[in-house]
């Protein structure tokens, strides 16, 4: 049976399990949009293509499934770049479909032509560094192989974004429907073989250590190994610190949790590792700038170091481990737990002493009192099943105790402003009933606030937490600390957010006192509506950490 390429692409989306396609139609992708009628794929109209890419990324992060976005040729495709770069950094399986002018006008200067011919921009080249696979499909005779390659990149052990750019005339060509059978979709990710020798070595290191510490990263979440990490920690009394992306691997606030290890955190995990630990076990955690406190040598100095990661490129990338295990974290920990049966639990005397030596709780005079109280209230009000997309991250890293049953998604990727709102909206298309929060500053808010109308149009409940201090906080902090308080292009005048919320038809709540926060968490509907929650902050108040020079 012959079908159009556009219909084949829609069937391919269904075959990949894609249920939602985020995007904005344009002339060069209308044949694909037309075939969405009656399909199992729901299209979502965004306000800007960057929002479509961020929504697809948010969907993929929550679902652990292939997500998809679509845009027309030229400016539609170029507007996707930042969001797809973020998905690439996060290793998210996002399928990007873009249109292109018809092949017979390549090089002639067609409207929005992006073929790379005759001085036109090269759309595929633009995405070359931020996709696992990309292809301008100029003919149909190799279409099956292209779809198979795309599926392998999306569903393989190291996933990432894929770009398929399809010229307008090719979308309308007829092909045999059996072409779709050439796309072989793996039913599940292939398990990595365990490295038989290092696991016993890892068990030996843990047996010999007196005060080991686990540093759990996002790899534990990707491997669905939260339970195994908790069992290992509890069986042997091993304290656990997490990376920023790993918050929630173990319940923060529990006896063995050291909280978040990172330069913008409160420093508790850093101090314990530096002062007490004799073995540091990294589980799916990169030793990046944030986690390593700008690669502070004291963290690993004089200690044995072990590392477990599915990605062999991470092993030994920054530090030299005494034992490195390349394998699935969940499988490695399962074997490790078997080998450590009968091992005596470690003493908790140093951990108890460490807690007694921590600085006293912040006084009411500290400048971030409202942010601390907000995150305390958030953890209490939503102990499980909440989706928190956080572009700010600095306050959550210190003040937010993430339970193992919540879902915290810091904007770590390429740390792009304007991410939280569309990412949270995308996630809600997968988990419709989960309470959702998008946390961001007033600068980032104005990069993406138009997507609130997408939430309104599709009835997506969402709480947007807007930190209002009338400045680009990180820039102002750097200019204060490093540039002699010579401020330039960091301060601005905000709109009246109450009026803006009214224009969107959503509720506005202004938080100036802890009493306002109490009312927020006890009286406001934080699950069934769209709320713009404005928290006032002094622009002259800066976190104490020093950014990299």
Description:
With 549 residues, this protein is of the alpha/beta class. It folds into 3 domains: 2-182, Rossmann fold, CATH 3.40.50; 198-357, TPP-binding domain (Rossmann fold, 3-Layer(aba) Sandwich), CATH 3.40.50.1220; 369-536, Rossmann fold. 35% of the residues lie in helices and 17% in strands. The strands form 4 sheets. It has a 6-stranded parallel beta sheet with strand order 3-2-4-5-7-6, sandwiched between helices. Strands 11-10-9-12-13-14 form a 6-stranded parallel beta sheet, sandwiched between helices. Helix 2 links the parallel strand 2 and strand 3 (42-45). The termini are far apart. Residues 360-364 have low confidence and may be disordered.
What's the arrangement of secondary structure elements?
Elements: E1 2-4, H1 5-15, E2 20-23, H2 30-35, E3 42-45, H3 49-63, E4 67-71, H4 75-78, H5 81-90, E5 94-100, H6 123-126, E6 133-136, H7 143-155, E7 162-167, H8 168-172, E8 174-176, H9 198-208, E9 212-216, H10 218-222, H11 226-236, E10 240-242, E11 257-260, H12 268-276, E12 279-283, E13 304-309, E14 323-326, H13 329-339, H14 349-357, H15 369-381, E15 387-390, H16 394-399, E16 407-410, H17 420-428, E17 436-441, H18 442-448, H19 452-458, E18 462-468, H20 473-482, H21 497-504, E19 507-511, H22 514-523, E20 530-536
Parallel strand pairs: 2-3, 2-4, 4-5, 5-7, 6-7, 9-10, 9-12, 10-11, 12-13, 13-14, 15-16, 15-17, 17-18, 18-20, 19-20
Antiparallel strand pairs: 1-8
Helix pairs in contact: 3-5, 3-17, 9-13, 11-13, 12-14, 15-22
């Amino acid at each position: 049976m012959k079908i159009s390429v556009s219909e084949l692409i829609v069937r391919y989306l269904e075959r990949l399990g894609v249920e939602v396609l985020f995007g904005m139609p344009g002339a060069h992708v209308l044949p694909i949009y037309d075939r969405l009628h009656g399909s199992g794929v729901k299209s979502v109209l965004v306000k800007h293509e960057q929002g479509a890419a961020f929504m697809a990324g948010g969907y993929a992060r929550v679902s652990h499934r292939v997500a998809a976005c679509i845009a027309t040729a030229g400016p539609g495709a170029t507007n996707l770049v930042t969001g797809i770069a973020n998905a690439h950094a996060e290793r998210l399986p996002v399928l990007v479909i873009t249109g292109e002018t018809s092949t017979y006008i390549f090089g002639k200067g067609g409207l929005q032509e992006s073929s790379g011919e005759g001085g036109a921009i090269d759309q595929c080249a633009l995405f070359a560094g931020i996709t696992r696979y990309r292809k301008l499909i100029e003919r149909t005779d190799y279409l099956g192989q292209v779809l198979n390659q795309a599926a392998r990149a999306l569903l393989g052990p190291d996933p990432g974004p894929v770009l398929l750019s399809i010229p307008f005339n090719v979308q309308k060509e007829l092909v045999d429907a059996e072409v779709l059978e050439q796309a072989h979709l793996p039913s599940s990710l292939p398990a990595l073989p365990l490295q038989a020798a290092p696991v016993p070595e890892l068990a030996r290191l843990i047996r010999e250590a007196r005060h080991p510490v686990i540093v759990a990263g996002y790899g534990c979440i990707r491997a669905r190994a939260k339970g195994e990490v908790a069992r290992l920690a509890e069986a042997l009394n091993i304290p656990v610190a997490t990376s920023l992306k790993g918050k929630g691997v173990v319940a923060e606030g529990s006896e063995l949790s050291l909280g978040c290890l990172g330069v913008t955190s409160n420093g508790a995990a850093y101090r314990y590792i530096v002062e007490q630990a004799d073995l540091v076990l990294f589980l799916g955690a990169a030793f990046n700038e944030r986690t390593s406190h700008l690669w502070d040598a004291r963290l690993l100095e004089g200690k044995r170091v072990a590392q477990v990661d599915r990605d062999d490129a991470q092993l030994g990338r920054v530090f030299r481990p005494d034992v490195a295990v390349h394998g699935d974290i969940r499988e490695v920990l399962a074997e490790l737990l078997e080998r450590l049966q009968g091992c005596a639990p470690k003493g908790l005397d140093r951990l108890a002493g460490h807690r007694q030596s921590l600085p006293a709780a912040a006084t009411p005079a500290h400048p971030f009192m409202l942010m601390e109280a907000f995150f305390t209230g958030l953890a209490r009000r939503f102990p499980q099943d909440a989706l928190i997309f956080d572009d700010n991250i600095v306050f959550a890293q210190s003040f937010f105790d993430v339970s193992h049953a919540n879902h915290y998604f810091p904007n770590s990727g390429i740390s792009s402003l304007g991410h939280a709102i569309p990412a949270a909206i995308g996630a809600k298309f997968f988990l419709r009933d989960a309470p959702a929060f998008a946390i961001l500053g007033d600068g980032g808010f104005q990069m993406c606030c138009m997507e609130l109308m997408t939430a309104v149009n599709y009835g997506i409940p969402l709480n947007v937490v807007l930190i209002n201090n009338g400045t680009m906080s990180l820039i102002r902090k750097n200019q204060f600390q490093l540039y002699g308080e010579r401020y330039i292009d960091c301060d601005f005048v905000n709109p009246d957010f109450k009026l803006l919320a009214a224009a969107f038809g959503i509720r506005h709540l202004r938080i100036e006192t802890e009493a306002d926060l109490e009312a927020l968490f006890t009286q406001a509907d934080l699950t069934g509506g769209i709320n713009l929650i404005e928290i006032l902050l002094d622009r002259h108040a800066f976190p104490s950490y020093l950014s990299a020079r």
